């Protein structure tokens, strides 16, 4: 009974996180597309939102499609495309961070001529990048923690990470 409760709780959390991610990506795509010319101070910000939204949505769709496939040519092609899209998204995220954070003072008034950016576009891009950076840092920290924990557990059990020529089937020669 307890395993089924944990399993249903895990599935519920994954579904809720999935819905949140989809909402954020669709908002990025739509906000960037609607206000494509509303940020002359840094015209790449709306383009950044459109591209990161579209490529991330495509990557998610391919991931879902890939989970329905058996090991085949299409699965390999889909996995390769997902990896390439994620590498592109990483580079695009870094470029978007440069574009967003390069603006120190933002004028939100459209009557200011060429030195303004639409408030909703800039603030969404700013918080998208800030929260994205926090999430990446948390994932890297948790991953490093898991690797370190694995090494410590192996050391306490007397297991070796790498094969040694001086040992034969786990017994020192």
TrEMBL record:
Q: Which InterPro entries does the entry mention?
A: TMEM272 (IPR040350)
Q: Keyword annotations for this protein?
A: Membrane, Transmembrane, Transmembrane helix
Q: Does the keyword Transmembrane helix apply?
A: yes
Give the transmembrane region(s): 9-33, 45-65, 77-101, 121-152
Asked whether the UniProt record includes Membrane among its keywords, one would answer yes
Spell out the protein name for this chain. Answer: Uncharacterized protein
Which organism was this protein described from? Umbra pygmaea
What is the phylogenetic placement of the source species in the record?
A: Eukaryota, Metazoa, Chordata, Craniata, Vertebrata
């Amino acid at each position: 009974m307890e395993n089924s409760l944990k399993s249903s709780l895990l599935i519920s959390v994954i579904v809720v996180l999935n819905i949140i991610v989809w909402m954020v990506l669709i908002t990025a795509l739509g906000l960037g597309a609607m206000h494509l010319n509303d940020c002359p101070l840094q015209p790449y910000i709306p383009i950044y939102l459109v591209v990161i939204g579209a490529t991330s949505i495509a990557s998610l769709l391919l991931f879902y499609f890939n989970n329905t496939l058996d090991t085949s040519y299409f699965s390999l092609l889909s996995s390769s495309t997902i990896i390439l899209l994620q590498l592109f998204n990483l580079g695009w995220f870094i470029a978007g961070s440069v574009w967003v954070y390069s603006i120190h003072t933002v004028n939100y008034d459209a009557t200011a001529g060429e030195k303004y950016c639409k408030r909703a576009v800039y603030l969404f891009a700013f918080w998208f990048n800030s929260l994205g950076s926090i999430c990446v840092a948390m994932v890297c920290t948790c991953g490093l923690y898991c690797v370190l924990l694995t090494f410590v557990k192996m050391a306490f059990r007397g297991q070796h990470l790498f094969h040694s020529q001086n040992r034969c089937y786990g017994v020192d020669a």
